[in-house]
Amino acid sequence: MPDKLILIVEDNERSLKLERDVLGLHGYRTLEARTGEEGVDLAFANTPDLILMDIRLPGINGDEALRRLRADARTSGIPVIALTSSATSDDRERLRVAGFDGYLAKPMDLKEFPAEVAARCGAPVAEA
Ligand code: MN
């Protein structure tokens, strides 16, 4: 059985490194994109188990990237979690209405982050 594959769409290098390192530590494989367009293309090509989507991105934003993912049969069923530093309840409601499956506040909580990932796509195979 293949390991879980997670696509990180994130333009901030420091956030991207943290997210990649934490996921790797927990046994997930990761793919990385630094723009929404690149993220959508990688998702179409690799159909990851979960997508972590920054909202503020160069080019199309996370909302538009989500719309494109939902509109394509290859990716319409993949859970997408929004990553954002906007943490008010209004923001969370907006993300829910936009169709995101979940929400993680930046900076990452190092316990909540892998727990939310595991809740959305299961624990990695390597971690029995
Ligand atoms: Mn960003």
List the helices and strands and how they pair.
Layout: E1 5-9, H1 13-25, E2 29-33, H2 36-46, E3 50-54, H3 62-70, E4 80-84, H4 89-98, E5 102-105, H5 112-121
Parallel strand pairs: 1-2, 1-3, 3-4, 4-5
The chain binds manganese (II) ion.
How would you characterize the overall build of this protein?
The chain has 128 residues and is of the alpha/beta class. The protein has a single domain (5-121), classed as 3-Layer(aba) Sandwich (Rossmann fold). The protein has five helices and five strands; from the N terminus they run βαβαβαβαβα. It has helices spanning 13-25, 36-46, 62-70, 89-98, 112-121; strands spanning 5-9, 29-33, 50-54, 80-84, 102-105. The chain has a five-stranded parallel sheet, with helices on both faces. α2 (36-46) packs parallel to α3. Bound molecules: manganese (II) ion (MN). Manganese (II) ion (MN) binds at residues 11-12, 54, 56-57.
Q: How would you sum up this structure in a few lines?
A:
By secondary structure, the chain is an alpha/beta fold. Helix content is 41%, strand content 19%. The chain has a 5-stranded parallel sheet with strand order 2-1-3-4-5, sandwiched between helices.
Note the main attributes of this structure.
binds manganese (II) ion, 128 residues, globular, 41% helix, 5 helices, alpha/beta, single chain, 5-stranded parallel beta sheet
